[in-house]
Task: inverse folding
């Protein structure tokens, strides 16, 4: 296949992050050079129709290998995963996608000579034994969820492939992500998206986490930036590989509700705590120390809480026709 720019494959292209990462990569590298790969969830039409797309089951090594060969892939963003609360209810599927899938992607990438693989991790890699305030980049990883265990596996395997198998693997530990484009799913931090739908549609929201549950969060444009900036960073400056903390803001449900109330004065927040998601949130950090990412590749987020709330209300209001 004669082309000047390498082909990039994005697994999980129908997901919350993948569906916004693909258009950004296509804008940067050309629509024909970015293959959007989905599996169970249908690709959003704008992602499916704007460039090449594929169906790839990451739990099958042969499927991943075939896609890399068919599209002559040079770099890969591995965004497929079964999220936290869903994984607890479907352990076999979560293992097949999150653990076996990560291995299949890394090994197929190595055997096909890919130049670079981005395997994002998550704050779910931490656990109750991890220091909660300003969580260090290099600290104890002893998660108590299947999703988190899979993320630790991905980090350790990514570092192993980078150090022992000659594959350039990189990854950030993403906090909770807030976005207006895709509907919230079963993530533990998705209250921070659902609250905006409730605020705009009904002027109220019932939150499944306690009002004082502080969690590290990030607005989607910053999440996309963190992945692309790390992928493009000069390898000479990188001491870490697949395990960079990236921070932007931390807030509680009560603080987010206050910020929304400043713009929608009658907004009512109620609480009905879901023990599963509260227990998951309680095992995660309150805030992150991302000095390694700032030092090694210049990480610097653009959005704080107020900027995010303004942008969410404006864009989601337009999307919902309010």
Result:
């Amino acid at each position: 296949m004669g082309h000047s720019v390498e082909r990039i494959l994005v697994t999980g292209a129908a997901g919350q992050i993948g569906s916004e990462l693909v258009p950004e990569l296509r804008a940067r590298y050309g629509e024909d050079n970015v293959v959007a790969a989905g599996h169970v969830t249908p690709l959003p039409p704008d992602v499916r129709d704007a460039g090449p797309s594929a169906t790839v089951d990451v739990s099958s090594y042969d499927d991943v290998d075939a896609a890399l060969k068919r599209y002559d892939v040079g770099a890969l963003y591995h965004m497929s995963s079964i999220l936290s609360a869903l994984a607890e209810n479907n352990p076999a599927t979560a293992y097949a996608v999150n653990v076996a899938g990560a291995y299949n992607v890394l090994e197929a990438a190595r055997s096909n000579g890919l130049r670079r693989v981005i395997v994002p991790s998550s704050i779910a890699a931490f656990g109750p034994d991890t220091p909660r305030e300003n969580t260090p980049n290099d600290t104890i990883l002893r998660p108590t969820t299947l999703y988190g265990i899979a993320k630790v596996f991905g980090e350790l395997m990514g570092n192993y492939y980078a150090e022992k198998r000659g594959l350039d693997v990189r990854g950030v530990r993403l906090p909770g992500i807030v976005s207006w484009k895709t509907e919230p799913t079963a993530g533990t931090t998705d209250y921070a998206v659902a609250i905006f739908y409730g605020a705009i549609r009904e002027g109220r929201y019932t939150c499944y986490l306690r009002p004082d549950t502080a969690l590290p969060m990030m607005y989607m444009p910053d999440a996309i930036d963190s992945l692309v900036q790390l992928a493009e960073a000069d390898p000479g400056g990188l001491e870490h590989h697949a395990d960079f903390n990236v921070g932007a803001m931390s807030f509680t449900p009560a603080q987010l509700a206050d910020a929304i109330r400043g713009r929608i004065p009658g907004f009512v927040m109620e609480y009905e705590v879901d023990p599963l998601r509260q227990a998951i949130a309680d095992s995660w950090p309150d805030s992150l120390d991302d000095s390694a990412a700032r030092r090694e590749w210049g990480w610097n987020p653009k959005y704080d809480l107020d900027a995010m709330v303004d942008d969410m209300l404006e864009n989601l209001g337009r999307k919902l026709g309010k």
